[in-house]
Amino acid sequence: MNITVAGRSHTGAVREHNQDVAVWQVREDACAALVLVADGMGGYQGGEIASRLAAEAVMESLTPRLFSGDLHEHEMTAHDNLMAAFALANQRIQDRRAEDSQLDKMGTTLVAAWLDGAKAHIAHVGDSRCYLIRQGKGTCLTRDDTVVQNMLDDGSITEADVPNVPFKNVLTRAVGAMEPLEISYARQTLEPGDSLMLCSDGLTNSVAQQEWEDILQQADSGESAVEALIETALDNLASDNVSVVLLTLN
Q1: Are 195 and 118 in contact (CB under 8 A)?
Q2: In which order are the strands placed within the sheet that holds 184-189?
């Protein structure tokens, strides 16, 4: 098996600052990879700091395990290591908030995927997403931690109502904004040809799923797919930062 990763983060068509972070690391044998996307909040300065702190904490915690290959000896090991990495990110942001009152509202979404062989382990907080792409179709493996998603779940609104909800981007969970931090975890076995797409809501809010599925099917490489997704978001006047990382199992 061979894992390839391509990704990019862009300020979008309106914003002047990029509060998103998209980072990844692939093991030298191309049999394991760690990818993440974080979308900061709390003003442009606070958002940039929060997403960067979260990404640094997760990579610092998990990259050594990427090269030692010990993250997923069994399911609990993968789960526990991801939980510990997210908890470290949460603590780093809370510590920084305590040092500077101007940053007291900062936090970040965070979605991370560890792929070792065909086994994927996914952790997330917030509304940045992870999709499984199989045979050209996308299946979301994460659930948005938002007020709108709660309303959809309890039947208060329908999907048709979502664009008209004024607080549709209000989060119910964010890294750095709560203690203890509630973290969602999922696992997925991939098949050759499958991809995982991690993205911030800047992509999903500006490019409809059918549109980005078509882009992925037409692209001849991960790099060209990512570039086309970003360019389409910009053509659609993305009002937020746009980040996407595409991990493919060949």
Answers
A1: no
A2: 20-26, 32-41, 107-116, 119-125, 184-189
Residue 147: strand pairing partners: none
Q: Is 163 exposed, middle or buried (0-12, 13-18, 19+ CB in 10 A)?
A: exposed
* C-alpha to C-alpha distances, 94 to 46, 128, 212, nearest whole angstrom: 12, 20, 35
Q: Which has more confidence, 68 or 46?
A: 46
* Calpha distance 96→117 (Å, rounded): 36
What residue type is 63 in one-letter code?
T
* pLDDT exceeds cutoff 70 at 74: no
Tell me, what DSSP letter sits at residue 74?
S
CB of 82 closer than 8 Å to CB of 121: yes
What residue type is 159 in one-letter code? E
Token pair recorded at residue 202: 């800047």
> Exposed (0-12), middle (13-18) or buried (19+): which is 63, by Cβ within 10 Å?
middle
| Distance between CA atoms of residues 171 and 86, nearest Å | 17
Structural domains in the chain?
3-249 (3.60.40.10)
Whether residue 3 is predicted with pLDDT greater than 70 in this model: the reply is: yes
**H-type helices in the chain, by residue range?**
43-68, 75-99, 147-153, 201-204, 209-218, 222-235
Cβ atoms 250, 3 nearer than 8 A: yes
Q: How far is CA 189 from the centre of its chain?
A: 18
How far is residue 7's CA from residue 44's CA, in Å, rounded to a whole number?
22
Rounded Cα distance between 54 and 86, Å, is 8
200-214 per-position pLDDT tens digit:
999 999 999 999 999
